C-alpha cells in the first residue's frame, strides 16, 4: 500500500463512498468550500483539493506554517484557522479570493482552537485562566466580544453550530467519557443528547438541518487519538434514529471540523492506512 491518507466523500442517498485523493502524506480534517473545492491541512500548512483535478495545492495564508486540523470557512468564504506559536494556538482569518493573502490574528487569548462559524459568530475550544481545562467559547466577529460558555469542570471540545444557528453541538466528558451534547448559543440548556458506551467526538450538523454526523471511538479510548478502528454515525437533531454508517481506520483528522457539502447531501472525511502505522 502506497498511501497514508485517503480523502473520501460519502453520498447520503446511496450510502456509497468514493476516493477523491490518496497521498503518502498525512493530511487531515477536510472542509467543503461553497465553490465546491475542499481544504485539508498537512505538514503545518493548508492545502486546496479541487474536485475535477484532485491534487494538493498550497493555500496562501501569509507564510504561516504551524497550522493544525482546526480550520474551515466563514460564511463569506474567508478561511479561518488555528495556527501555533510559542504561546499556543491562535485563530486567524485570511481572504484568499484574490489569490494571495495575509492572515489576520484575531487577538484571542491562546490557546484557542477554531471549530465552527455561523453568521458573525465563531465557536472554538479554548483554555482560559491557566488551568488548561478545555472549554467552549464564542466570539462575535463584529464586536470582538468573547463569551466562554462552559465551566472548567470537564473537558468540552469540538463545537459546531446547528444549521440555523440556535444551538452549539459539542462533545463533553462531564458524564464520565466523551458524549455528544447540545446547548443554546448563550450556553444555557447544556445536556447530553444521548448516552452510550462509545467515546463520541466531533458532532457536525448538516447544513439542511436534517442530520448530525459524529465520530465514535471504542469504549475506553482516552482523548481523540489517531490510527484506531473508529466509526462514523448519523442521527436526527433530536438524537433519534442513530445509525452507524461504516467502520474505518482513523480518529484524529477524520472529521475534526465541519465537513458537509453545502447542500447537505454529502460529507468528506479522512481514512488512514493501518499498514503505515501511527504518525505524529
What are its keywords?
globular, WD40, four-stranded antiparallel sheet, mainly beta, 0% helix, single chain, 6-blade_b-propeller_TolB-like, 280 residues, Neuraminidase, Biopolymer transporter Tol
Number of domain units: 1
CATH homology-level superfamily:
TolB, C-terminal domain
Low-confidence stretches: none
Instruction: Give the SSE order as H and E letters.
Output: EEEEEEEEEEEEEEEEEEEEEEE
The level of helicity is: under 10%
- Average pLDDT metric: 94
Q: What is the spatial order of strands in the main beta sheet?
A: 3-4-5-6
Helix count equals 0
The CATH topology: Neuraminidase
Q: How many beta-strand segments? A: 23
CATH class category label: Mainly Beta
| Ends apart, CA distance between termini | 19 Å
Second CATH tier, the architecture: 6 Propeller
Please summarize the sheet with the most strands: 4 strands, antiparallel
| β-strand amount | over 45%
What general outline do the C-alpha atoms trace?
globular
Rg from Cα: 17 Å
Counting helices, strands and paired strands, the structural category is mainly beta
Organism: Paracoccus tegillarcae
Pfam family, one: PD40
Protein name: Biopolymer transporter Tol
InterPro entries: 6-blade_b-propeller_TolB-like (IPR011042), WD40 (IPR011659)
